[in-house]
Amino acid sequence: MQNPSIESIFQRFITPKWIGFYFGAAAVLVHLLTANGYGYFRDELYYLSASKHLALGYVDFAPMIAWLVRLNRYVLGDSLLALRFLPALASAAEIYLTTLITKELGGKRFATTLACLSVFIASGILSMNSYMSMNAFEPLFWLGCTYFLILVINRQNPKYWIGFGIIAGFGFLNKDSMVFFGLALLTGLLFTKHRRLFLSKWFLLGSLLAFLIMMPNLAWEYQHQWATLQDLRNVQLLGKNTVLSPQAFVGEQVLELLPPTVLVWLLGLWYFLFHKKGKQYRFLGLAYLFLTIIVIALKGKVYYMFPVYPILFAGGGLAWEKLLSERKFSKAIKVSFLTILTLSGLVFAPIVLPILSPQTLIQYQKLFGLQVPKTEVAHSGPLPQYFGDRFGWPEMVANTAEVYHSLTTDEQNKTVIWASNYGEAGAVDFFGPKFGLPPVISAHQNFYLWGPGNHDINTIILLGFNQTRAEKLCTQVEAAGTVGQPYAMTEEHFTIYLCRGLKLPLNEIWPQVKVWN
Q1: First vs last Cα of the chain: how many Å apart?
Q2: Is the pTM of this model over 0.90?
Q3: Which helix (H) or strand (E) holds 68?
């Protein structure tokens, strides 16, 4: 028997699936090495609190993230590294699903390498996978549905609709935006010859499975007067999010996904829409266009589109592979292209990963003339929001503890901490026990549903309130401390008020103070 040569062994380990594995492993390593940078993100503290109140629904997010955080705490703990382990794995899974889609579309080594590298270095995707949130897991459901739909077409086997339906159902439990992607994907099918796939009994069965999986959350929404829709309507009425023109929205996609990658995803869009070999998957290009229209029409944030780009990267990888297959100097062009993408990724990485010190980051942004756009009108600070919201929480709780421990024992027994938003409330809930603080309450988002508790209260420590709001609650209001870590967001610089002599009992005040926005 002839022994395999070194070259044959090497070839065996550079197949598309192995390439996806290597990029996925690199992504996990990058995220775990940077996991302890800066501190807990505002939303992570919120989810940690939600994990103590497991339910089938929440005001401003789908239920899966709270259950995942609860499981994470039980198995790994709640340190920064532990909390960011699952998002790191999700980054690897996102890359590997991109590999499977690229391969199923017909891509080989270069197509897979280009698609995986693009996902790996895309700035917005890197940022989304750097902390615990449903945004880190959302691409897995979008890509999973896409993969099963491609299998339905390529294998001419409608039974794959079952996998599509199951993934879509759980995708909804992760984030409600699964509905919009599903709608865009099915609309894309409707405008192509593949519309006949809707006539299959397996499509109906897959749809039924998706609905059954979604049912518990829908039941919760019904029982709570469609709380999430109330919240979304309030966001629209308040003009909370930064609204961009269609041109500016597309421009931000280019910027936030790393500008050189536009050469990949835009060609991928062209490939799906116009290339003679890509027309079988035209529904994917149409789905991207429909989704863009939906997000812009609903005044959504730029990052709502990020989970769809791995699909375009897969198409772009395949298009470039076909374009270069018969060109002179194709190998040199491929190496140069991959090198440029890699170097640009290295340059932009410190903008979206907690690698540099805050002051160095500010100088780095100025050096390259980079300014990360705001996603919400009211949020500002020296750092981009996705970094600024990781600063100031332990210091805020420490300052609150100073105020609390300045009270007499009798006063402490009748004192509660009231935070104005879920970030402050989550921080006190998480860090507070280390400082010996009493329970925290808030009327913001899900904290409102968790209520004010059954406390015999005479004194409230108010966080994030102005004096006018404080005086509406109490007969005596005293400025007792300040909060303001230099790199925290502007709204997290405030005066701590000590509020004595409640004008009404908390349980009577509560129905009047709900803040869902």
Answers
A1: 71
A2: yes
A3: helix 64-75
